[in-house]
Structures are given as structure tokens and as C-alpha cells.
């Protein structure tokens, strides 16, 4: 069976690293490129983080492209250094590669997306794990880009107005609300959304994380290192944040979108409806609004996930850290 071609657009924090591991471990997936965007860290750190994950999995042949370093409009003043650390991977990596920049492709991420998808029309799944800036830029450079995609998977946004960086907005969308707005208005390809609430409501037990990172493999040891001092993977820190809304549990946000791309049966319930990203509200800017009653009169609907097979999802996570794969 032919492998599914995938481009991963990422702001590579710890959960992005976990998502990339899922894709690299999946026998039915061929990652044709990784495009980098600001978000969990500055874009140069993101590039280095992606290279590190690929190196650990012995997959350095996959090309990595540097993309946008800030939002389409205005200044970038929301970097969440308290969540995944300044570098996106928990600020625990000491031996950074001084030659990393030479390993990044010269082509801009948006141009690379357009080229790779044009060369493989209607065959490429795009998995967007960070702010949607590169995607918005791609459609401005080539308005026909989305119709050449097979489908689009997004981790971001929310469905009930519960925010994690502002009162009503999820982090990825809050980093570049205009980009999120453009993608949901103009990407008419099949689109699947793993929202913040979806991830949090389908959490795994904290004991699962301990089991996950205790395996004796290079990838598991890497995940153990980068989660060791990170607030986002601290049961105590989350009691005052996420647990207020959703109760206790381990959540690897971006992994949910990637799991859905790898194996659609992971998602067991979803809503199909039009959505729009709010740009104006003083408290609700960047909030994703679901139009369940068709008041917006939009022609395009998206699939918003609501429930997943947590056992199947957990199995994908377990398999993801058993890398590098034996040749």
C-alpha cells in the first residue's frame, strides 16, 4: 500500500516533538518535509528542535524549512516561555549543534509547502501544529494551494470559548489570529481540527507519562529529558491551570492531531459545521466560533473532533518512542 504523504508544520515544542515521533514511527506515513514557524519558541530554536528530533530517530534525510518568525500583523509578544521553556524543549539541552543552520534548506517554508504539494497534487496531508502563519502566507503566494492538498489537520483553537493564554483563546490561534482567520475562511480542502478542549477532555493518566518515558530507547530517553523540568508536564503546576477546567491528566496536545492523521479511527466523535475565528473582541479575539445553526451562511464546513479512542491514542504514543526503528 502506498504511504500517505505528510508535511508537518510545527512550532516544535515538547508536544510537537511527540507528534513528530508519532509520524516517524507510523509505517503508513512518509514525511516529505517539516516546515517551521514561531510559536512555542523563536523560529531558530524551532528549527534546531526539529533537527534534534530527526537526528534522534536517525531520519536526517527529511528536509527542514525555516518559515515565519512572527505573525502576519503586529508584533509577536505572546511567546509562552513558562510553558515549554525559552527554547521550546524545557531548557535542558546543553549540547546544541553549532552547524544546525547549514542543515536547514534555503527555501522558505511557505514556498516549500507550495512546491511539495504541487509536485504531489491531492496526495499530501498537511498537519499544522503551531500558529497558522506559514499556511496563510502560502495561500497568499498561491491561492490555488489548498485545493491541491489531500486534507488539512490542525491542532489549535477552541470550541467553547475556554482559553489557555487569554480568557477565550487557545495559544496557537492567539499567536496569529489573522492567519487562523485566513485559513478557516479560504482553505476549502477537507479540514480536521483537534481543539484545546478536545485534547484536554481526552487526557491520559499521569502514570501513563511515567510509563511512556521510562522505556529504554533513545526517543523515550529524549522525551524524559525534555519533560523533566517543564511546567506543562508537571502534575502540580497543572492543578492551578488546566485542571480547573478539565480535571487531572497528561495531555500531549499536538499528538492528537497527528494521531488523527495517522489513524482516523482514533477519533470516535466529531462535529461537522462552519467555523470562524473572531478578530475584534476585547476578550474573545482569536476565539474559534462554531456555527452549529448556519447563521454565517458559509459554504465550507470543517470537522471538529470531540471524542477519541484514548486506548488507541495511547498505543500510538507508546509506539512513537520506540525509535530509532530497526532497519
TrEMBL record:
Similarity comment: family membership: Belongs to the IUNH family.
Pfam families noted in UniProt: IU_nuc_hydro
CDD domains membership: nuc_hydro_CeIAG
Matching PANTHER family: SI:CH211-201H21.5, SI:CH211-201H21.5-RELATED
Highest taxon of source: Eukaryota
Entry GO MF terms: hydrolase activity, hydrolyzing N-glycosyl compounds
Protein name as catalogued: Inosine/uridine-preferring nucleoside hydrolase domain-containing protein
SUPFAM superfamilies hit by this protein: Nucleoside hydrolase (SSF53590)
Annotated ranges, domain Inosine/uridine-preferring nucleoside hydrolase: 6-313
Gene3D superfamilies to which the protein is assigned, alphabetical: Ribonucleoside hydrolase-like
Amino acid at each position: 500500500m502506498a504511504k500517505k504523504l505528510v508535511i508537518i508544520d510545527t512550532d516544535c515544542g515538547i508536544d510537537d516533538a511527540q507528534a513528530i515521533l508519532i509520524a516517524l514511527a507510523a509505517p503508513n506515513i512518509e514525511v516529505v518535509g517539516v516546515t517551521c514557524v514561531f510559536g512555542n519558541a523563536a523560529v531558530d530554536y524551532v528549527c534546531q528542535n526539529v533537527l534534534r528530533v530527526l537526528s534522534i530517530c536517525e531520519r536526517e534525510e527529511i528536509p527542514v524549512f525555516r518559515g515565519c518568525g512572527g505573525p502576519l500583523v503586529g508584533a509577536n509578544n505572546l511567546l509562552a516561555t513558562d510553558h515549554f521553556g525559552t527554547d521550546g524543549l524545557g531548557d535542558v539541552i546543553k549540547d546544541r549543534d553549532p552547524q544546525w543552520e547549514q542543515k536547514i534548506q534555503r527555501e522558505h517554508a511557505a514556498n516549500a509547502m507550495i512546491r511539495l504539494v504541487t509536485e504531489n497534487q491531492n496526495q499530501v496531508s498537511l498537519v499544522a501544529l503551531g500558529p497558522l502563519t506559514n499556511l496563510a502566507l502560502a495561500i497568499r503566494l498561491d491561492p490555488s494551494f489548498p485545493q491541491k492538498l489531500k486534507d488539512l489537520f490542525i491542532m489549535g483553537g477552541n470550541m467553547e470559548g475556554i482559553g489557555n493564554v487569554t480568557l477565550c483563546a487557545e495559544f496557537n490561534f492567539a499567536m496569529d489570529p489573522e492567519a487562523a482567520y485566513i485559513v478557516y475562511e479560504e482553505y476549502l480542502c477537507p479540514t480536521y481540527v483537534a481543539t484545546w478542549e478536545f485534547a484536554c477532555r481526552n487526557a491520559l493518566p499521569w502514570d501513563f507519562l511515567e510509563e511512556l518515558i521510562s522505556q529504554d530507547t533513545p526517543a523515550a530517553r529524549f522525551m524524559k529529558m525534555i519533560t523533566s523540568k517543564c511546567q506543562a508536564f508537571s502534575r502540580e503546576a497543572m492543578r492551578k491551570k488546566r485542571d480547573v477546567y478539565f480535571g487531572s491528566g497528561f495531555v500531549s496536545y499536538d499528538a492528537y492531531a497527528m494521531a488523527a492523521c495517522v489513524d482516523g479511527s482514533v477519533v470516535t466523535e466529531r462535529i461537522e459545521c462552519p467555523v470562524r475565528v473572531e478578530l475584534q473582541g476585547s476578550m474573545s479575539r482569536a476565539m474559534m466560533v462554531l456555527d452549529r445553526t448556519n447563521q454565517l451562511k458559509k459554504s465550507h464546513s470543517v470537522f471538529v473532533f470531540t471524542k477519541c479512542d484514548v486506548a488507541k491514542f495511547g498505543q500510538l504514543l507508546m509506539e512513537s518512542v520506540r525509535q530509532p526503528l530497526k532497519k
